[in-house]
Write a structure and sequence with these properties.
143 residues, alpha/beta, Rossmann fold, 5 helices, 17% strand, globular, binds magnesium ion
Length: 143
């Protein structure tokens, strides 16, 4: 496995369906925020994102947002209505925060996936943490 090669590729986070997560044995989904779950310009979660998170949760998948964004207050305000834990200033590609999340919520590497848009941070951090890296395209305006 190449360190910078994603294990699976998707166009957008909505394509990562609860069915697919279940099939792949994913119980903990670590998600990047900027350009993965939202556009930089989005200040609040979209209805599409809220619905996707609810559906994943219903399928028994725990979601934790792990971002390199250092704006703590913005991160908390964005994630609070979604009721998902968030980690800011994660310093990916360092894998520390990914490993900490697995330990905190008690999941094994084989049950965990990191979903993100950048190979230089998300994909590398996932592979340093010995978990699967799923990559989405840099998010664009999708209607
Ligand atoms: Mg990103």
């Amino acid at each position: 496995m190449g360190l910078i090669r994603a294990d699976k590729k998707f166009e957008k986070f909505e394509d990562v369906t609860p069915e697919l997560l279940k099939k792949a044995g994913v119980k903990l989904l670590l998600c990047d925020l900027d350009n993965t779950l939202r556009l930089h310009s989005e200040k609040e979660p979209t209805a599409v994102l809220a619905k996707w998170i609810r559906a994943c949760r219903k399928a028994g998948v725990k979601i934790v947002i792990i971002s390199n964004n250092g704006r703590k207050k913005m991160m908390q305000e964005f994630c609070e209505p979604l009721k998902v834990p968030c980690v800011w200033w994660a310093k990916k590609p360092m894998s520390t925060k990914l490993t900490e999340a697995m330990e905190e919520y008690n999941f094994k590497p084989h049950e965990t996936v990191m979903l993100g848009d950048k190979w230089s941070t998300d994909v590398l951090a996932a592979h340093f943490a010995k978990i699967r890296a799923w990559k989405v395209e840099h998010r664009r305006n999708i209607v």
